[in-house]
Amino acid sequence: MTIEDTGKAQAMGALVPNRPAIAWAADHWPALAFAACAIMLGAAHAFESFGKLAPCLLCLKQREVYWVTGTVALVAVVLTRTAWADRVRKPLILLIGLGFLYGAGLAAYHAGAEWKWWPGPAACAVGGAASADDLVAMLKGAKIAAPSCDKAVWIFLGLSMAGWNAVISLGLAITSFFAGLRTPAPPKAA
């Protein structure tokens, strides 16, 4: 690859030799953060739809964090392609990091409630999974109990979905702060 080809590849955002993947990821973090939010929301909805695991109140709150953070990431993607790119890149990426950090804290709180380290919200204390019969009953005016926040319905390698969400959100927050505090590499002259 010639120097001219390298410059063109960098201008197009491609990975080039002598440029670590982590630098490329940091330079493209808003788009990657948006993709991470979409993947996490997709996984949550797949567990609900295909795994028949009804979300509790705290599960839904964790999804809201991804919706908000994903929206901020999408705004960052759009604005980094404008004349304001230099001014908005760092604050928006740090805001994305704060969103992920808040999500990690919320997920850790949920996981702690599942482990009975502290009580969950009072609105989450009773119930089980909602079934199709429950939904039909609800349409007829009956009240159904929401799933309980203090019972893990799915565990993998010792962590519940909330526990995994805490780990993933913390990793995304750290990556966001790294990308936001990193000085982007200037484009090389061809």
How would you characterize the overall build of this protein?
It is a single chain. With 190 residues, the protein is mainly alpha-helical. It has one domain (19-121, 151-181): Bromodomain-like. The protein is 63% helix and 2% strand. It contains 7 helices and 2 strands; from the N terminus they run ααααααββα. The protein has helices at 3-11, 21-27, 29-49, 57-79, 85-114, 132-139, 161-181; strands at 155-156, 159-160. A two-stranded antiparallel ribbon has the order 1-2. A hairpin with a 2-residue loop joins β1 (155-156) and β2. The relative contact order is 0.17. The model has no long low-confidence stretch (mean pLDDT 77).
Secondary structure elements and pairings:
Elements: H1 3-11, H2 21-27, H3 29-49, H4 57-79, H5 85-114, H6 132-139, E1 155-156, E2 159-160, H7 161-181
Q: Quick one: biggest sheet?
A: 2 strands, antiparallel
Name of the top-level CATH class: Mainly Alpha
**Widest beta sheet: strand line-up:** 1-2
Compressed to H and E, one letter per element, the order equals HHHHHHEEH
The low-pLDDT segments are none
**DSSP strand (E) fraction?**
under 5%
Distance between the termini: 12 Å
Tell me how many strands there are. 2
Helix tally equals 7
Please state the CA-atom Rg, rounded to the nearest Å. 21 Å
CATH architecture descriptor text: Up-down Bundle
Output the structural class: mainly alpha
Report the average pLDDT across residues.
77
- Any idea of the CATH topology? Bromodomain-like
* Overall tally of structural domains: 1
Instruction: Indicate the overall shape.
Output: elongated
As a percent range, the share of helical residues equals 55-70%
